[in-house]
Write a structure and sequence with these properties.
The protein is α+β, with helices and mostly antiparallel strands. Helices cover 32% and strands 26% of the residues.
C-alpha cells in the first residue's frame, strides 16, 4: 500500500508536470510529423491519421492545430479542427481530433487544449464549434458536458465506420455530436445527485433491485436517467460481451430519448452505488 505522504507527493508532482505544459500552435514540419506520430501511438498503426501536409495546409485556411508541449519540448497532446460554412452559410468550426498521452490524461491537458481552441476561434469571430465523442466514455462525457458546457446536438450511429484502431475493438463508432459557443467560457458545473434522482426512471440494460425502470414506449416522464458503464474501456477488456450489450442499449436509449424531445442536462455519478447516468430532461 502506498504511504499517504508518498501518494500526496505523487499527486503534487503530477500537478506540477501538468502546469508546466505549454499550449501553442503546431507551426513547423517537425511539429506536424510529431502530431502524426502521436496519432499512431494513441490510435494504433492501422489507424488512418491526419497527414502532416493536411495539418500544415489547414492552418492557412482557418483551421486550428494546437499542441501541448512538455518542458523538454516534446508533444504530449494536440487538438485539430477545420473551419467552414454550415448549411446556412455561417462560419463554423469542426474540432476533428483531440488526444493526450496516457500519463497526462487526468491532468486537465485536454481541457486546456479545448479552451485554447475556443479562445482562438473567438479571436477569429467564429461563434461556435462542434465535435464528437463516444457516449459510452464517462470521462469524456464529464469533461464535454459538465466542464466545457457543450450541448448534445444529435446521436450518429457508426459515424466513422471501421477506423482500424484497436481502441474501438471492432465496435461501430457511434458518436454524440456536441456544440459549444465560443463566446461563453467554460464554467464548471457541479452535478451532485439529488434526493429526487432516486425516484427518476432509469434506462439501463442491467436493472438493479429497486430501480425505477423507464420502459421505452409512449410514456415521457419529465426526467430520465440513462445509465452507461463507469469505465467502458475497462469493461471492453474484461467483459467484451457485456460491453457490446451496453453499446447496443445505449444506441437504442439515446435514439429514443432524443426522438422524444429530451435534452441532455449533464452526466451524474453516484458515489454510493458507483453508477453513472446521463440526466435527460424535457424542456
Amino acid at each position: 500500500m502506498t504511504a499517504p505522504h508518498s501518494a500526496l507527493a505523487h499527486a503534487e508532482s503530477f500537478r506540477d508536470q501538468a502546469h508546466a505544459i505549454t499550449i501553442r500552435p503546431l507551426s513547423s514540419s517537425a511539429d506536424h510529423r510529431a502530431c502524426v506520430a502521436l496519432q499512431r501511438e494513441i490510435w494504433g498503426t492501422t489507424f488512418d491519421p491526419v497527414p502532416a501536409v493536411i495539418l500544415q495546409v489547414a492552418t492557412h485556411l482557418a483551421g486550428v492545430a494546437l499542441g501541448a508541449f512538455d518542458t523538454e519540448g516534446e508533444l504530449v497532446g494536440f487538438v485539430f479542427g477545420l473551419t467552414g460554412l454550415d448549411d446556412d452559410g455561417k462560419p463554423t468550426h469542426w474540432s476533428h481530433m483531440l488526444a493526450v498521452r496516457a500519463h497526462l490524461r487526468d491532468a486537465g491537458v485536454g481541457r486546456r487544449l479545448k479552451e485554447a481552441q475556443r479562445q482562438e476561434l473567438l479571436r477569429r469571430h467564429i461563434a461556435e464549434m462542434y465535435w464528437t465523442y463516444d457516449p459510452l466514455v464517462a470521462k469524456n462525457a464529464h469533461v464535454n458536458l459538465n466542464l466545457l458546457g457543450a450541448k448534445v446536438v444529435r446521436y450518429v450511429p457508426d459515424m466513422y465506420g471501421d477506423t482500424g484502431s484497436p481502441l474501438h475493438h471492432g465496435l461501430a463508432t457511434d458518436r454524440l455530436v456536441v456544440r459549444c459557443e465560443t463566446s461563453q467560457p467554460a464554467h464548471p458545473a457541479a452535478l451532485p445527485l439529488e434526493a429526487t434522482d432516486a425516484r427518476t426512471p432509469i434506462l439501463t440494460p442491467w436493472p438493479q433491485l429497486g430501480d425505477p425502470i423507464a420502459p421505452i414506449g409512449d410514456s415521457t416522464p419529465p426526467r430520465l436517467r440513462l445509465e452507461i458503464p463507469a469505465d467502458f474501456h475497462a469493461l471492453l477488456g474484461e467483459a467484451p460481451v457485456a460491453a457490446r450489450t451496453w453499446h447496443a442499449a445505449t444506441r437504442e436509449h439515446f435514439q429514443w430519448v432524443l426522438a422524444h424531445g429530451y435534452v441532455v442536462a449533464g452526466l451524474r455519478r453516484d458515489a454510493a452505488t458507483a453508477r453513472t447516468f446521463y440526466l435527460m430532461v424535457l424542456p
